[in-house]
Amino acid sequence: MGAAGRLRAALWALLLPLISAQGGALHAVQNDSPHLTKDYCIYYNTYWTTLPDSLSNIAYAELEFLTPKMLCSPSEVTQDIKNKAIVVKRGNCSFLEKAEIAQQLGAKFVLVASDSPIHPPGGNKSKGITIPVALIKSRDIIDLEQTLGRNVNVALYSPPEPLFDYSMVIMFLIAMFCVSLGGYWSGRAELEKLKRGSTPGSNDSLSDEESLTLTPVSVVIFVTSCCIMLVLMYYFYKWLVYVVISIFCIASVSSMYFCLSALLKKIPYGQCRFPCWNHAIEVRLVFLLLFCIGLSVTWAVFRNENSWAWILQNIMGISFCLNFIRTLKMPNFKSCVILLGLLLLYDVFFVFITPFITKSGESIMVEVAAGPFESSEKSDGNLVDASAEQSAPHEKLPVVFKVPRMEWSPATLCMRPFSLLGFGDIVVPGLLVAYCHRFDVQTSSSSVYFICCTIAYGVGMLITFLCLIFMKMPQPALLYLVPCTLIACTLVALYRKEMKKFWNGNSYQVMNSASNEENATQATEHHEGQ
Fold first, then answer.
1. Selected catalytic residue, list 140, 347, 385, 440
2. Which residue, 187, 310, 403, 463, is most buried by CB atoms nearer than 10 A?
3. From CA 55, how far away is CA 304, in angstroms rounded?
4. Averaged confidence pLDDT in the chain
């Protein structure tokens, strides 16, 4: 994939989906074998009822399957449901009407099975209704019946959301690995370029082909394109999501090949070649390309397998981020400030401002990143199913790292089985880290800019996680990452009295050939000495 293709693919990597849910759990126990249990996601209205926060001393009830009945009339019930929990289909009558009928017949609580995406029941609750009402997915009721049978006891509870999940540690390590290794690799590539430039008769055209430099003008075009694509995704998600998946697969094949081939070339074995179109190609590189294609295709086919497909997506994502940081170069600190500043405004606007614009009250960033819900509308406390033509595909944008959440909670069960970190929160600050390392190489500054910027990125990521934990709401990560990295780099440059040089860049500026050769010689001698 060429530099322009990598740039287009990267425009999709600027999302961090963080969503919240009002949910609880249905705990089902098989009567014949009490050790067989399973929990299912439910949604309930906390203003209508309060559920226990644990299973200790909880009241169970026998589950009566009334589906496909909707319980819009007492005449639909022909069996005794006194002191039982009942499950009915969602229909044209409201949740409160179902609850009123169930309470009159002596039921303990009502489960409403829905085929469409579920939300907490709404409406003004009547003072006479005391039994809990919860919404559950129809496929979960089918799974319960197939797994545990019909002879089951059930109970409703809602444990509190844990403050911390250990999956955040893994996310932090992935982010630090990508940023530090990508920045280091970019600096090493700059050193190799300077070595070739200082060698008589050298040709660095290969390096130029493998990199793309963002000027201030192209930075503005880049951010504008991100805004346009995000809005297009918001309105045309069910079509464009497959375009994004295709681009991600192609970009990942290219990225994995470049990353792994760089390692493979360090191994002095298996270098046999065969002639092909007047060139000699290493056999091991052919097998490497086939491996990368096979891994990408495997993910594309099984991308919705939650049990293991996330591992492949993370491998592809790490390769993508590393290759992106290595190949896309910022010419100077000025371009870095423009890029990170504009993307900070982009992130804040689409997370915090757009909820006041959209009809749903959700931010465009969250809805696009999490995948839009099927169209639905509230009517008299009931969510009426929309037409199938308006439904969105159950596909997610593959622009995030995914790690299974390790602490159990209703949010984990219902909507967020994974902790998510967007590629954009790695590659955008990673470009600044990469520029810092290249500047270190050009000025022989012992990697001081690179180390300080990497540490600042880690601090910014920790602040992001802390704000997410304590504020319990979507956080634009760049809001914390951008100030931390930019301020750290600025302080280092001011302390070293190199702000002007750092701001304007070094080898990317128009310089006389003698100065270029002097810088290249100094950088080469310094790093070889290390």
1. 347
2. 187
3. 31
4. 80
The confidence band for 124, taking pLDDT boundaries of 50, 70 and 90, is low
Residue 451, amino acid: I
165 as an active site residue: the answer is no
Has this prediction a pTM greater than 0.85? no
CA separation for the pair 367, 143 (Å, rounded): 28
Q: Is 347 a catalytic residue?
A: yes
- How is the chain split among helix, strand and coil, in percent rounded to 5? 50, 15, 35
Give the pLDDT mean for 62-74: 89
Residue spans of the domains in the chain: they are 3-19+163-201+209-371+398-529, 32-150
Q: In sequence order, which residues have a C-beta less than 8 Å from that of residue 282 and are 6 or more positions away?
A: 270, 271, 272, 273
Of the residues 140, 165, 425, 440, which is catalytic? 425
Average pLDDT over residues 84-94: 88
- Report the alpha-carbon distance of residue 432 to residue 183 in Å, rounded: 8
- At 264, the amino acid letter reads L
pLDDT of residue 121: 66
CATH node for 32-150: 3.50.30.30
- Three-class secondary structure assignment of 322-382: HHHHHHEECCCHHHHHHHHHHHHHHHHHHHHHHHHCCCCCCCHHHHHHHCCCCCEEEECCE
Which residues, 6 or more positions from 94, have their beta carbon under 8 angstroms from its beta carbon?
123, 379, 380, 381, 382
Q: Which residues, 6+ apart, have CB-to-CB distance to 76 below 8 Å?
A: 66, 69, 70
State yes or no: pLDDT of 91 exceeds 90. no
pLDDT digit string, tens, across residues 313-364: 999 999 999 999 998 999 999 999 999 999 999 988 888 888 888 877 777 8
Q: Is 123 exposed, middle or buried (0-12, 13-18, 19+ CB in 10 A)?
A: middle
Is 80 exceeded by the pLDDT of residue 200? Answer: no
SS (H, E, C) 56-122: CCCCCEEEEECCCCCCCCHHHCCCCCCCEEEEEECCCCCHHHHHHHHHHCCCCEEEEEECCCCCCCC
